[in-house]
Write a structure and sequence with these properties.
heterodimer, A: alpha/beta, Rossmann fold, 3-stranded antiparallel sheet, 9 strands, globular, disordered C terminus, B: mainly alpha, MetI-like fold
């Protein structure tokens, strides 16, 4: 069991309810896409899974432990095994790309090694390899404030790839990328999950990307799970119901891909 | 998310803003009265003549080789006092600031375990910083002059204590007011606090931290002059002697040195900011 949420509910400090009665579990190595209209609670769900937000109701299990029953040191070790790709990459603009990527493993490094690495990067090869997978290796020694939003988002993905987490969470990881790059980036995340056996949970705005690459789809609406199905069982009617308030499901390309289209075009993974 | 009909068309904060402006004025007026703020008194004919006479005594600046040698020695002493004091203050402030700043709190994530203990700890360190800076450096200097005798050593210790408190408080606040999301994301991925500081906060805050530290060094130069008056050596002690002997020329030479030191601090600050930009 990679994670298990049991009737989880979250009310933000401002009184707004973000999650209600969410029960969700995944086996090791599963790949799940979370879709739904904005404000449905996708980000909150991922923060709960990442042991970054403690839900007021229900129970959380992640990677075999209950994070909120752990003392500080084991909780820190657990967090080091969970990687999150954030929608707005939280990277200090003056940091160099190489340091931004290497920061992925700060949870595993000693403080001395972390400080030395700021003077001279500890693992240039590793950073280069992670960046190559998002086609950013030529910007290795540039500063992050010289990058565009889409490039920075790819650096954020490379950081999490370099972390090699056992639970890989991605919150709108391709929101700043054009459809071609978005498709490639999602493929990279899938490949990482296949190579390392990591469980992958990604919230995606583009429904077609979710349907094309993920075997399991969770539809969220108003802080709850509307449906949780294998991709083949997701029907157009379910999507229309999910996005009823937004006038139909959004997509990365122009039109929604019809479900009948063959969904397994994966040139890079056999 | 709220429906458009419920959104008010008038700025809901407008009344509070006007209210606070009025409160600020109401508080400021008695302050000015209490402080006997009467700038026009400066321009009364008798007063202008007195001030003019006093200032005329400052010209020309004293330039004899013997005095200049004395001045150079005192300048070096002041610089050494300010620099050593600021360096010690820095060493006191950095660990305390890291303890006190909320930007590096691990227990606030979640919120996780140990939150209450961490809050008590932060409050204790905050109070310590308050005590350090609440007592003016001149008082510390008076105490240390009695303990260590006349000379810059007393000034160094006095500066270290008071400025340690000031630097610690302001460092912690600068770290909180920069973008804390990078550091928080690192802490959420299991990073240690020092690593999160260096990878998440310092790249953004270093410039401001450096310029505030140099500004404090500049203040320390001025403060060390004031402490010189109570016997802590340096330019202040020289100034004290010159003033007591009513030697305006010497005093103005010393003031010119102050001016040069402030210019130096400014140049240093600019250079550091450029370096860290």
């Amino acid at each position: 069991m990679s994670f298990a949420l049991e009737t989880v509910g979250v009310v933000h400090p401002n009184g707004q309810r973000a999650l209600q009665g969410v029960t969700l579990a995944a086996r090791d190595g599963e790949r799940i896409a979370v879709i739904g209209p904005s404000g449905a609670g996708k980000t909150t769900l991922l923060r709960v899974l990442g042991a970054a937000l403690r839900p007021g109701e229900g129970s959380v299990q992640a990677l075999g432990t209950a994070p909120w029953r752990l003392p500080p040191a084991p909780l820190r070790r657990l967090r080091a095994r969970i990687g999150t790709v954030h929608q707005a990459p939280p990277i200090a603009p003056r940091l160099r790309v190489v340091s931004a990527v290497l920061a992925g493993r700060l949870g595993h490094w000693s403080t001395a090694r972390a400080l030395r690495s700021l003077l001279h990067p500890a693992d240039i090869e590793g950073a280069h390899e992670a960046l190559a997978r998002v086609a950013m290796e030529d910007r290795l020694f540039e500063r992050c404030d010289r990058l565009s939003g889409g490039q920075l988002q790819r650096v954020g993905i490379a950081r999490t790839l370099y972390q090699r987490p056992a639970l890989l969470l991605a919150d709108e990881p391709v929101s700043a990328l054009d459809p071609t790059l978005a498709d490639a980036a999602v493929r990279t995340l899938i490949a990482q999950s296949e190579a390392t056996g990591a469980t992958l949970v990604a919230s995606l705005h583009a429904v077609d990307l979710a349907l094309r690459w993920f075997p399991r789809i969770v539809g969220m609406r108003d802080g709850g799970v509307l449906f949780d199905r294998p991709t083949a069982e997701v029907t157009q009617a379910m999507l229309v119901a999910l996005y009823a308030s937004e006038g139909g499901p959004p997509s990365a390309d122009t039109a929604v891909q019809p479900l009948a289209e063959p969904t397994f075009r994966r040139p890079d993974c056999p | 998310m709220s429906p458009a009909a419920a959104t008010p068309r008038r700025d809901p904060q407008a009344r509070a803003r006007i209210g606070w402006t009025v409160v600020a004025l109401v508080i400021a007026w008695p302050m000015l009265v209490l402080a006997e703020f009467k700038p026009w008194a400066l321009f009364a004919p008798g007063n202008l003549a007195v001030i003019g006479g006093f200032l005329a005594g400052f010209l020309p600046p004293e330039g004899s080789p013997a005095f200049l040698a004395l001045l150079a020695r005192a300048t070096l002493e002041t610089l050494a006092m300010a620099t050593a004091g600021t360096a010690l203050a820095f060493a006191i402030a950095v660990p305390l600031a890291c303890l006190v700043t909320r930007a590096l709190s691990v227990s606030r994530i979640g919120p996780g375990p140990g939150g209450a203990r961490a809050m008590v700890g932060r409050q204790a360190v905050r109070s310590l910083l308050m005590v350090l800076r609440a007592i003016p450096e001149i008082v510390w200097a008076l105490i240390f002059v009695r303990a260590l005798g006349l000379g810059p050593a007393a000034g160094v210790l006095a500066l270290a204590i008071t400025y340690g408190g000031m630097l610690g408080k302001v460092y912690a606040e600068i770290l909180e007011s920069t973008d804390t999301r990078p550091a928080r994301a690192l802490l959420e991925a299991g990073s240690g606090r020092i690593a999160a500081l260096c990878y998440g906060l310092l790249p953004n805050a270093a410039q401001e931290l450096a310029s505030y530290t140099v500004y404090r060094w500049e203040c320390a130069v001025r403060a060390s002059v004031v402490m010189g008056f109570v016997g802590a050596g340096g330019l202040g002690q020289l100034m004290d002697q010159s003033m007591k002997m009513l030697n305006g020329g010497e005093a103005s030479s010393i003031l010119l040195v102050f001016l040069a030191l402030v210019l130096l601090a400014d140049a240093l600050s600019n250079a550091l900011r450029k370096l860290l930009a």
